[in-house]
Amino acid sequence: MSNPLEEVGHKWGMVIDQDLCTGCQACVTACAMENNIAFVGEQDAAYGRSLQWIRVERFWEGEFPEVKSTPFQPVLCQQCGQAPCEPVCPVYASVHSENQQINIQVYNRCVGTRYCANNCPYQARVFNWRDYREPGPLDNALNPDVTVRRRGIMEKCTFCVQRIVQGEDTARAEGRQMADGEVVPACAQACPTEAIVFGRLDDPDSLVSRLKRDGRAVQLLEELGTQPSVTYLKGGSSYGRNG
Amino acid sequence: MAATAKPIAPATHEEHAESRQHLMLDPRPRGEMNAMVMESMHTTSWKFWGIAFLLGIVVLVCLFLAWGYMISEGLGVAGVNRPAYWGIFLVNTVFWIGISHAGTFVSALLRVFKAEFRRPFTRAAELMTTFGLIQAGLSIFMHMGRVWLSYWLAPYPNARGLWPNFHSPLAWDFLAINTYLLASTMYLFLPLIPDLAMARDRSTGWRKVVYRVLALGFRGTEGEWAHLRTAMNIFAFAILPVMFSVHTIVAWDFAAASRPGWSSTIFGPYFVVGALHSGVAAVAMVLVVVRGTMKNMKYFIRAEHFDAIGKLMLVISMGWAYFFFNDYLVQWYGGDHWTHTLLAWHESGPLAWIWGLMLVCNVAVPWFLLWNRKIRSRPGWMFVIGLLINVGMWCERYVIIPISLTINRMPFTWQSYRPGIEIVLGIGTLAFFILLYMLASRLVPLVPVWEVQEGQMAHSLRKFGRKTVVSVSELE
Amino acid sequence: MEEHKTLLALFEDLDPTAAAIERLRKLGIPDDQMNVISGIPVTEAMLGRPRQWSNVPRLALGGSLGGFLVGAFLAFGAPLLYPIHVGGQALIPIPPSIVVLFELTMLGMLVSTFIGVFLDSYFPSYRPKEYLPEISDGKIGILFQCPQQKQAQIVLALKKLGAESVAPAEARQL
Fold it and tell me: Which domains does chain C have, with CATH numbers?
């Protein structure tokens, strides 16, 4: 059952340098525009229902006025190698993609049990609590490459899979290997400090592979054994630290 | 007296009065018992219809209208959010499945162990199983984001070429709950056939037609009884592991997830005992209402039955406390940072009163009251204790689901859960349960008369020296 | 060929019924031309009747085998029809398969037990049948075929043993 069009197999990954992150939220905005993510409005957003596929976490430590801030931490789906969200879905809406080695959410299969979201240790999944309408004129700016989701469906970061597939198709059509940095997800593209680096982990010479071997590299909740595809770089000092 | 072994006459007047307190030693002719059960089914007052009408309106508004509104608007009108993705809908699901466990427990386990006190109220308990499972099913459907596609959980060849994912505890749930719903409905129906035949023989009009159809032409020939008895034996033994599996799988929905407080290997039996705790308490409540409101039921349901159920409740409460403490101690000892945070959140968070209420209702109330036989024998007390235990068990599920979901390993997403329309829908399921039960109480012979008569046949008094004691013969 | 008549004798209590069955047998009515109808499960042993054969246990066994096979298809066959990998688990993981096998085996067993009662008892059947409503009031009836010329003798014998009534049984709409 080998389909020649699907023979390419890569392992995609990401490195986020927290020492470079300024917390500007450009990635959050770019992600929303690229992936047709709906605006939920103030009330729902304040109640923990915002549909962000990537969020920038920051905490205050200590008591005012002696407060310090932790480094900014953009959190998105970690595209786990052994994703806890996948086996718990009764209808195979959350599955592992063999070609990209990422975690895929099949919107059309989702019946909305929200088990995957409960089981995601990173809380990276978001749910369409209502049919959210884009405020005009944004409803004219939808990306035609990405499905619009209706109410009752779980969604999450896809590593901009539409761009990955497009890049793979282009390279195959031109009969060449993909170059490092040819595919860039919206968040990495928008990052002004280039704190987000994306590429192939199966290529040991790619930038993302080299950064992953950096001494500052850590992974979120590594102890759970989820084998995340996202690596964080966190050193002693940083530009992004504003405390 | 038809077809009964004649008990020896009690020696003294006191002994006579004492023995007559037991239903099994106070036999009446079968015809009279039949007439009593038929009369209790036929008797309705304006109060009955008034309450049924009000409940019907509540069901219409709180269940169907509110649900329709939620389906068209999305789950945003409920209180679920991130991280409390599961809220009161699943609390209610677990709660109703728990209620449904009582019927099978009372009827099958007590039948297997030949506990004679079960006889007059097996049917009343079995009805709770079926109606409780209906509410559990409704609650689980309410919970789903796209309920109109819920049939996708069923394994059948379809145009998408896709089968359910049997790695998922929810897929096991689908199989287990459906198996249990089918099995418990069949188990309700089999011992009902002779009673339906009895009702058919003494009905007229539309009731006659209904009972004739439902009784399937049962006459009570040797063959019919033999097949029925064999089947009921198979059911009594086989439905018990199914019952345990259902609530164990419900527990696995939580225990299989990688979350602080949930990944516990003891959740299976802990949930089963919890289900019995609320279920048996609910049986006590239903029996109090049935006895108090239906004609002739004071003959069938007596102080001795409440006494026996009260003992069961006490034992189950101890079992629940044992499992709770076992789970708590090991979680506490583990030293995991997130688990400790969660335990602190339970005990001293803003909703700590729910955690406290759970312990008071589930442990303190039964332990302090149910050791007393006088309290156990009083229907009023038993109703209140049963109600409190059910409140406590509901709180337990509330602590396990939305309160525990608030705490996860990503503190940035912590957020409290504020229930919305799910409260209205929960009231709807409660009203629907009561309404179904009320209507069934006037359509289905609530006391299995033939089982009572069989029991009365098997009981006799025997003399040991100067003392007269009850003796039960094994007829089968 | 002798003319046979179906008679229904009603009794109050167990002992006279057992005695009557014994007497009928002595009077030349074989066991397979008798049937006892009762409102409570009176076991065959109490009345000295041959044990009833029931197919229900066999059907239950067959049903559980069928359920097991369906479960095996769902657990081991269905994933092969459309292989999807989830969470780094095997395509066909053993522990979850045990759950599926258990539930479907039990489902098959219980459904076939239930259907077995229908098959063995010929339920539902709404044809007119020989029956008296007093039976669900606790009376025990003996339904038997008797040769016409012996009828008077048998009726007398049963009445002597305490039969409330012995009458030609009429098939009536239940």
Answer: 4-53+127-172 (3.30.70.120), 56-120 (no CATH)
